What does this fold into?
Amino acid sequence: MATEEGAEAGSPLDEVMEDIRQELVRRVAAADRDENREVYDALENE
It folds into this structure.
């Protein structure tokens, strides 16, 4: 039984999982910026 994406509202679990995914992406991006701060600073100062 296939449904079209966006055809029905996601379950509460789907919403929580999406929030978790978004938070993980933010944390990984922040950790990457912190780990590579010298590179980001050098690019900013070019």
Q: What stands out?
A: The longest helix spans residues 12-35. The chain has two helices and no strands. The chain has one domain: 11-45. The mean pLDDT is 85.
